[in-house]
Design a protein that fits this description.
Length: 354
């Protein structure tokens, strides 16, 4: 029987696109299989498909076993799925009091990054912590200069999580939607700056390599996506009257996206189902389940500090030392803003009554 060589060639091209390494190792085996079946005069198109499929599966399995003992940084990009142009770069932004910042706040970034990258659709390139300003007027909120410094101390050993002081240094409370816009504009500006540099390098290289007409064409890369990172309590606060503007919720979730970390006793999926606004943009909300329950609360930490109890291992060591050195979180500091209405409630209540 005559073998349809074009059919075999098409199959080889198909597998080469899937995994070029496996094709190289398969060539000898395929040839051997063809000769063996040809000797027996039993070769058909179906035999070839079955043989190639089985052999490819065997090669993939053995290759995965050989990689299992290596560190993730040693994995080929093809295996990790990070070389695909369709992968979206993501910057995670966490806004809040951070009064004080705890290990759980930092843990949220790691959980979110693992969840997003496990989908194969995202690559998290940066995390930003943005402590709220003093104008928020929350009870027990100490000065932003201290909260910013504690946040910096907690991230000094991180190679991807940073602290931004813009929001914390504003004299008045800034709505979260405006904070997100601010950081998104910064990302776009940085991308534009990088594109301008790349354009100059590209044009210079073209002039050196080709003494011809200048080319003004430059392929623009897709910019990173900014997502708000929060706990389930923040998501559920969207339902508190006069705490959020509906148009801000629509902008945050609809335009940017949200990554929500679950907490014990919360049910983000149920809350999303109840809210028409969140249900509309449910595909932009990534709910991350924390299987290792960690109920570190900044409120409970402050309580322990007021009572002279140890908070070690609840906070980064640098933060614990900073609190001790500056005598932060006393009974007096907890009463700060006790008689003041929270800034968003005051602003939106006044707006609705006028």
């Amino acid at each position: 029987m005559i073998v349809n060589t074009s059919f075999v060639f098409c199959l080889s091209i198909l597998y080469q696109r899937t995994w070029s390494r496996c094709l190289v190792t398969n060539k000898a085996n395929v040839t051997y299989g063809l000769e063996l079946n040809d000797n027996r005069r039993q070769l058909t198109h179906h035999n070839i498909v079955v043989f190639l499929s089985l052999n490819l599966s065997s090669q993939l399995l053995s290759h995965s076993h050989s990689l299992s003992g290596k560190a993730e940084t040693e994995l080929p990009l093809k295996v990790r799925g990070m070389d695909d142009q369709s992968v979206t770069r993501v910057v995670l932004l966490a806004c809040g009091s951070f009064n004080p910042i705890t290990n759980m706040h930092l843990r949220m970034f790691e959980l979110a990054r693992d969840h997003l990258e496990d989908t194969g659709q995202y690559r998290v390139v940066k995390g930003i912590i943005s402590p709220v300003g003093d104008g928020y007027k929350k009870k027990g909120l100490i000065e932003s200069c201290h909260r910013l410094e504690m946040a910096r101390l907690s991230t000094e050993n991180s190679d991807w999580i940073t602290v931004d002081s813009w929001e914390g240094l504003q004299p008045d409370w800034v709505e979260t939607a405006k904070v997100i816009r601010h950081h998104y504009d910064k990302l776009l500006a940085a991308e534009q700056s990088n594109d301008d540099v790349d354009t100059v390098k590209y044009a210079k290289k073209r002039r050196i390599e080709e003494n011809s007409e200048k080319s003004s064409h430059c392929t623009r890369r897709d910019g990173p996506q900014l997502m708000l990172l929060c706990g389930a309590d923040v998501l559920e606060s969207f339902g508190v009257p006069n705490l959020w503007k509906q148009e801000d919720i629509a902008e945050i979730v609809g335009r940017y996206g949200l990554v929500c970390i679950t907490r014990s006793g919360s049910d983000p999926h149920k809350f999303i189902h109840k809210s028409d606004m969140l249900w509309k943009y449910r595909k932009n909300i990534h709910v991350v389940h924390e299987w290792v329950t960690n109920e570190i609360s900044a409120t409970h930490v402050r309580q322990s500090l007021r009572r002279g109890r140890s908070v070690r291992y609840l906070l980064p060591d640098g933060v614990v030392n900073f609190i001790r050195e500056h005598g932060l979180y006393s009974a007096e500091s907890e009463e700060k803003n006790a008689d003041v209405v929270l800034a968003p409630l005051q602003r939106y209540s006044d707006a609705s009554s006028s």
